Amino acid sequence: MNLTLESIAAAAAGGLFAAAVGALAAFVLCGLMILIGTAAVIGAGNPWFLEHVALGEWFGPHIAFAGAIAAVAYAARRGKADTGRDIVSGMVGTADPLTLVVGAAFGVFGLVAQSALNQSDWMLTYTNTTAITVVVSAIVVRLVFGRTGLFGRTEATGLRARLRTTEQAVWLKWQETPLMSGLLGLGVGFLAAWSAVALAKTHPSLGVAAGVLAFGVSALSLVFLATPVAVPVTHHITAVAAAAGLAFSSVWIGALAGLVTALVGEVASRLFLIHGDTHIDPPAVAIAVMTPVALTSAAMLT
């Protein structure tokens, strides 16, 4: 993506809007826009909506989600939010213009950082630069606005103790066990890989849209996460499973990649999230780690 004054201003506006409505709402809207954008590519062959609205300046996670994460961390540091890990509340409720400005600033950071990563052919081909940018942005937010350090603060000593969950220190209680995470990874990963491979075969012109359809479904399903209903978080599974399925031309390898990614996401939650005071997104960490594993393995083995 070529940076222009308009694209930078659009990223600032995207980060500001996401900060206003909240990280979860922005990500759910990202999922909806991905589905609309995929349909547009299938119907008209035009990727602009997918590239710039769903995954770009308006709702791209590296801009919108990351901007909202920064805004709530800043608000919590100033005593205007209860916790810097709140991904549900819109920061417009703080009535604090500076909080929204922080969201705008990190929206621009996300655009510039991803654009810089994309200058490397290897990064563009073998990694997910959106996920990497989300992780880098969240680490910066933790170090700047947080008080607990990169890995959080806990009385537990030793790695095994830090990796144990408690009633208070947990990401998603309903999918924290290896059996539940693995089963979700395998099943949802199969669906993601199957749909991606099938779409790529029937619509060769889809390009990136073949791989992001399942991610869009996963993101949209999180609309229920703000309710008392237990909802699985699966977008890391679908992102990597689809990418692996396409790279290997194998639904089965995609499903296996989904299983491993689900487990990596759970480990990431225990390392970076549950003991911290800002949000470092476990799915983004899992995508950032597992995408190059899957794609470089495919390049070497196929």
Characterization of the model:
The mean pLDDT is 95. Helix 1 crosses helix 5. The protein is mostly helical and 302 residues long. It is globular. It has one domain. It contains 13 helices and no strands.
Distance between the termini: 29 Å
The fraction of residues assigned to DSSP E strands is under 5%
The helix/strand series, from N terminus to C terminus, equals HHHHHHHHHHHHH
Point out poorly predicted stretches.
none
CA-atom Rg in angstroms: 18 Å
User: Oligomeric form of this entry?
Assistant: single chain
**Number of beta-strand segments:** 0
Helix content: 55-70%
Structural class: mainly alpha
The largest pleated sheet is described as: none
Taken from the alpha-carbon principal axes, the silhouette is: globular
| Structural domain count | 1
Average pLDDT level: 95
Count the helices. How many?
13
